[in-house]
């Protein structure tokens, strides 16, 4: 029987979806992509913008016409009723019960044996014991690298955000557990592990932060395993963390939720850093990794964003030469401080600013890729199409591999050099080291 796990939102959701898919695969279900008809759908939703919610509703409606559909994730947590009303074929599993889904496959198998259908099986399922750290996938159906969840929740309360409302207070997986799970992934052959969480830099186990965790983890993992961080909130990036990032096994790719280049706006939306503090961190990251891929999240049209605030953001992203910008036009989220803000920016101005930043992002991304030509790098092989392997470089660029070794396999780490840039916003060539061929 086919099961499709469809994911919206952040890498943490992707990580949790992979664990859910893995639990179905272990019980003999076939995991399929959305294009392949499935007997059961799981939609892991996001509430970060109204657009993400709109897409979740669209996909849930579409899937529910084909088969029973379980809707879970942050949106399901904050608006269970809205999703329930989409179709009789929708079963809502609020975020606080999402981890229960890891045991659903076993239950469904028993139901099928006793003649019950999948929907009946889902409705009759109840499992009272689950933790936000039960997501511990051993295999990954939708990605070539391993994801490891080490943190959940957030103690900040940024004025635009309702993720902390859906996910609750910050909690961290014990260091010993992180190490044990990472070693198990290494033993399964993964050469890259992405650490995920809602707010990774809030990781804290017995007073030790992310820097301390990485030191211990790197001491245990072999020299052939790479670590990537999903994203880093600037306010808890400390010296210890910046020091450990210099380790060559830490991938040169950092994703920073900058949100605005104006101190006035950062303060207004309750972010806990200033632009000059952030500039120091970005300088250290650049020095640690020699031109790493630096991605920034930016929100345009935050309430109170004046022309001079947007100009400061524009100047900041150009000065910092970010490699890519994830641009989000502000969308007011219910239950947040800014939901009913009076100093709103008009939608047309918000969208105009988003468009301008996206154009700048394309130029910055192009310039970044051109700067890599001829530089040494490492890539993780992802898939093979038309006689070529395609891969992801340590600094997060898609590459097409010229002449790969006979023993190449998905998830394998390969050293080599960046070749020419092919096409706009697509991929670069990668020439593997002769010794690996
Ligand atoms: S740091 Fe702010 S934006 Fe990020 S999850 Fe926490 S409250 Fe939300």
UniProtKB/TrEMBL annotation:
<dbReference type="InterPro" id="IPR058240">
    <property type="entry name" value="rSAM_sf"/>
</dbReference>
<dbReference type="InterPro" id="IPR006638">
    <property type="entry name" value="Elp3/MiaA/NifB-like_rSAM"/>
</dbReference>
<keyword id="KW-0004">4Fe-4S</keyword>
<dbReference type="Pfam" id="PF04055">
    <property type="entry name" value="Radical_SAM"/>
</dbReference>
<keyword id="KW-0411">Iron-sulfur</keyword>
<dbReference type="GO" id="GO:0046872">
    <property type="term" value="F:metal ion binding"/>
</dbReference>
<feature type="domain" description="Radical SAM core">
    <location>
        <begin position="140"/>
        <end position="369"/>
    </location>
</feature>
<protein>
    <submittedName>
        <fullName>MiaB-like tRNA modifying enzyme</fullName>
    </submittedName>
</protein>
<dbReference type="InterPro" id="IPR038135">
    <property type="entry name" value="Methylthiotransferase_N_sf"/>
</dbReference>
<dbReference type="GO" id="GO:0035598">
    <property type="term" value="F:tRNA (N(6)-L-threonylcarbamoyladenosine(37)-C(2))-methylthiotransferase activity"/>
</dbReference>
<keyword id="KW-0808">Transferase</keyword>
<dbReference type="GO" id="GO:0051539">
    <property type="term" value="F:4 iron, 4 sulfur cluster binding"/>
</dbReference>
<dbReference type="InterPro" id="IPR013848">
    <property type="entry name" value="Methylthiotransferase_N"/>
</dbReference>
<feature type="domain" description="MTTase N-terminal">
    <location>
        <begin position="1"/>
        <end position="110"/>
    </location>
</feature>
<dbReference type="InterPro" id="IPR007197">
    <property type="entry name" value="rSAM"/>
</dbReference>
<dbReference type="InterPro" id="IPR006467">
    <property type="entry name" value="MiaB-like_bact"/>
</dbReference>
<keyword id="KW-0949">S-adenosyl-L-methionine</keyword>
<dbReference type="Pfam" id="PF00919">
    <property type="entry name" value="UPF0004"/>
</dbReference>
<keyword id="KW-0479">Metal-binding</keyword>
<dbReference type="InterPro" id="IPR020612">
    <property type="entry name" value="Methylthiotransferase_CS"/>
</dbReference>
<keyword id="KW-0408">Iron</keyword>
<dbReference type="InterPro" id="IPR023404">
    <property type="entry name" value="rSAM_horseshoe"/>
</dbReference>
<dbReference type="InterPro" id="IPR005839">
    <property type="entry name" value="Methylthiotransferase"/>
</dbReference>
